[in-house]
Amino acid sequence: MATFSQRLEDERKKRGLTQRGLALELKIPVSEVVFYELGDKKPDIDILNKLADLFNVSIDYLLCRSNQRQDPNLHIKEVLSKDPVLHEFWEEISRREDLQLLFKQTRNLDKESIYRVIEIIKTIEDEERIRYGA
Amino acid sequence: MGHKDINSFLKNLQNNSQQFYELARNYDIYPKITNLTPQLWGFVYKSSHGNYYIIINKNLSFELQQKIFIHEVKHIRDDIPKHPYFIGLNMQHLDFERKADAFSNSIMNIFENNQESK
Q1: Domain extents for chain B?
Q2: Is B37 left (phi over 0), alpha (psi -120 to 50) or beta?
Q3: Spatial distance between the Cα atoms of A22 and A102, rounded to a whole number of angstroms
């Protein structure tokens, strides 16, 4: 079973970085990187974010909570990121099991279509909330 | 929305094509004809309260909107889809799609024959 330490080492090597090189990228002492890869220490949230950005993978992937390198819904999140209300609504419904197929198909749509689809779903849910109560 | 209601709706539809969407709402079938991008014909959404909504691109011809609507009503009646889905997105080859198309065409033919006889 994969571990954070292994994933970190794999990703570092894929990018052709030495432990020292990675430490420089992260602006941390090289000993920290060594400890992470030995499994003797866990990184804090800021370092995790930096690692995810640097390797272009999700934090879930780094922590071995997922085997998908990228968050499959990243494209949808990016489209909605400029609209806080719609983004919040998306966060709320994105865990619904029955919507996963729709979201899978949504990933292939252009930005305007994704935005419109989520907007319509929100309108429907808002209308029903008024009709039936929360 | 129960099976009985949909059957009754489809039966009444054949004589009331003018009040198409108004009739649908009376049977708790929720069509939404709205502005969508050209990439989308529409989609079927099951709300968290369990109601089905058939969302159709208003830029399609009225005839095509009707055809899609009947096609999707048939799916909801016969297949009771648990998952929402987009209409016409890489699914045309499936057998149940062909059956729904044939069903939709037969209803549309009844519309046309009714209008010709008036």
Answers
A1: 3-117
A2: beta
A3: 39
CB atoms within 10 A of CB A30: 15
CB contact under 8 Å between B85 and A102, yes or no, is: yes
Query: Do β-strands B30-34 and B52-57 pair in parallel, antiparallel, or remain unpaired?
Result: parallel
Q: What is the pLDDT of residue A84?
A: 93
B12 three-class SS: helix
Q: Answer whether A96's CB lies under 8 Å from A64's CB.
A: no
DSSP of A52-93: HHHHT--HHHHTTS-S-SS-TTHHHHHHHTT-HHHHHHHHHH
pTM over 0.80: no
* Residue type present at position A30: V
Reported ipTM: the value is 0.72
CA angle A82, B87, B75 (to 5 degrees): 130
Rounded Cα distance, B53 and B60, in Å: 18
Between A and B, how many residue pairs show a Cβ–Cβ distance under 8 A? 51
Of B37, B53, B89, the CB nearest to A105: B89
